Structure formats: C-alpha cells, structure tokens
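User: My instructor asked us to take a sequence, write out its structure as tokens, and then describe one feature of it. I'm not sure where to start. Here is the sequence I was given:
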Amino acid sequence: MISVRVPATSANLGPGYDAVGLALSLGMRISLDRAPYPMVEVFGIGAELIPRGPEHPAYRAARFVAELVGEFDAHFHLVQENGIPPARGLGGSAAALVGGAVAANDILGRSMPAPDLLNLVCELDGHPDNAAPALLGGLVIGTLTPEGISAVRLEPKGLKAVVAVPDFTVSTTAARRALPEEIPHKDASFNVGRAGLLLGALATGEYKLLRVAMQDRLHQPYRSHLIPGFEDVIEAAYSSGAYGACLSGSGPTVLAFTPEDRGRKVATAMHAAFEARGVQAKACALDVDLSGAQVEPPGEVTVTNLQPAL
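Assistant: Let's start with the prediction itself. The structure tokens for your sequence are:
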C-alpha cells in the first residue's frame, strides 16, 4: 500500500482570489492499494462528512490517473486518515485529490511526470489556489491557461500562520452564491493593486505591508455575514500583533500571518473573539509547509493539536 501525506492549504489570502494559496502544517494521509473492487475507508477529523464510495475525491483522482495511463479496469482500496477539518476553508477536498493522484501515479509506475500531475490536480479541482500548494508546498501563485497551469512557488520565511476554525461549516456552494455577478471597476482595481503588494511583501519579507496588502473587496465583504464575529476576529488578530488577516478560502476559518513569537498570542485572541460572539472555535499557530505531497510509509498521520490556544 502506498501512503501520501498531503498538507492543508489556505486559498485566496485576501486579494489573491482563486490564484494564491499557502500550504499549512495540518495534514491528511491517503493510502492506496490495488483491489478487485472500490473500497474506501475514512478515519479522523470530520470523517462523518467525507464520502466513502467511488465519489470520494481521492478515489476519483486515482481512477482518473489510472485511465490516463491506460488502466481502465483498475480499482483501489483507499484509506484516508484525516487531520484537516472538512468544509472549513482549509483545502481538504483539494488535498484528497492530490493524495489520490500522487498515490495512484506511484502505484502505476510513476508514468506521469510532475508537471502533468500539477496540471491534472488543478484541472480536477477547478483552479490552482488549493491544489497547487497541496502538491508543491509553500506559497503558490498560479493560473490555468489553455496550455496548462502557469505558476510561481515562494517559500515565505519567519512567519506563523494562525488559523481560527469555527465549529460550523460553510458550503462552497453557499459561499459562491453570496458573490455578486458583477463588481465595480474601482473594486477590481483595489484588489489588483493589493494582490501585487501581497506577493511583493511575501517574496521580500516586508511583512509589515500585509495589513494593507491583505485587504479585499471581491469576496470577503460578501461572505462575512456567513461567519458571525468575522470582523471581530480580524480586529483581534491585529490588536494582538498579527501582520495581516483574512478569510481562509471560502471560510469559515480565519487566517492570520504573525511573527514567529506571536503565534500563540494571536491564536488566543482570535479564539476569544469567536467565543465572545457565542461561536465555538479552535485555534492554533501553524508553520508553512514547504514539502507538499510526500510519499511515505503507512502509519498514523501526525495531526497538529487544533485546540483553543488558551
């Protein structure tokens, strides 16, 4: 059985809508072996929310890889050991797609080179903001083109990524429905300028620019009503020393970048802000995952302690 450890991801990062994603030190393990018929087992955080049939995203990705290399009758036994809270804006579905694709490619003789795997997982997920950093690690800026994905990978240093994860889900469908069909030109211009500043700040280590750079007018103003206490949590992050803060993906998780010595303090403040609004939440300070998807021996997945940082 082949096992692949895949990190969680945070997408969008304020103005970088559908283009910027960061790999985090939460993870899941996807283990895969050949089988006479589809077999899917799921353990760990939120297991009851994850499908257990061929519709499982990792299984779908594994079958897709098998068909691409000509094994049309291949079936698999898949085991997911999950440490990524599902439906919280932490890229769990993309991580599963990546894990299934990488594991299947390994079992089938590594017939697909890395660039083809990257294109595959980004196309299966629909955009690169979660799938690309889940595969590659680090911070990835990418876009899909007719020729495949064009992407740049960065390795931000000296940062902690704090996540405050509420005890409720926001469906991607509901989050997308909250967005308007059209936006004013001035809002588009606002985001373009800040997206450039965001990437410059993360590339050069000028992290004090992140408070301005992570401002957004494309999706956060329209989704904030889905997350009670959202503005209070953002303000709590800044008041306790965060460089920048934003919605993680489509939410409801809130992400903050902090100095390495401020992560626990910021996590405590963000957790308290959610609790003050009657929202149960967990918070912790994570590292940026620079490894991405890694084939490793089977075993228990190491899950970061996602407990209230009190």
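For the description part of your assignment, you could build on this observation: The chain is about 35% helix and 25% strand. Try explaining in your own words what that tells you about the chain.
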